[in-house]
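Hey, quick one: can you model this chain's 3D structure?
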Amino acid sequence: MIQAQNIAYTIRGKNLLQPISLEASCGEFIAILGANGAGKSTLLKLLSQELKPTQGKIYFNNRLLSTWSSTTLAQHRAVLAQHHTVAFNFTVADLVMMGRYPHFKHSPRLQDYDIVAYCLEKTGIAHLSQRSFLTLSGGEQQRVMLAKVMAQLLDHTAILQEHKPLSHPKFLLLDEPTTGLDIFHQQNLLSFVRQQTQRGLGVIAILHDLNWALQYADKVLLLQQGESLGFGKTLDMLTPNLIKKAFQIDVQLVSQPSLGFPIIVPYQSNFFNQSIKQWQPQHFH
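Sure thing. Here's the predicted structure for all 285 residues.
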């Protein structure tokens, strides 16, 4: 379980994040949503310990996050960042193996190679295993990094018994994981992650697409300019009124009984339509 109690972040006198509380349990997919500059990445950096809160406390599995050693924490929680910097010419397989580093001291075991092969296959990049990471497209690099963090979290039993719960509480933090992916791979990534929540993995993800959140998230934290507009079940949070507050856009929720969830459709406001009608082209001579 991850618990954030009234955490806030201030730098050089500027409040980037007002006091926010949330609780994420194993088996839940929580989406963090908000417009650009709402504080989403700042919050995730606090939860991942990349930044330290200037107020409040964060607990991981009922212990203060700051009391965990980096190695032990890496065995139980992984972070997929938005941007990736790889300075050396690693192959895809070598880079994914780095996800196993917290689990062995000197050299990989056979089971570590099995886990890497499993994650390469599940993310659809097994055919790229001997390619240099630096030669891949942005979307391919994103899938490599997903394979790396999944290799960090899964154990040998988990890949042999895919339908059984994970043996220990694990969490995955994702910062805009669909960046650079086409719609096919966006859905594959989110589906794969969602399948892992059904085994007990806890997921906290920054998403931009509200419809993906409706389809995959159990709960939503909605942010606006560093403040929380609310935290709760997805359908309770993604209402036209709250979306209007967070994104300054009008939407309708269109019922889709065959899907089991509605679809959010943006539309132009009357003011915007009226502005278009009143505008007349300028003629220059």
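One thing worth noting: The longest helix spans residues 138-153.
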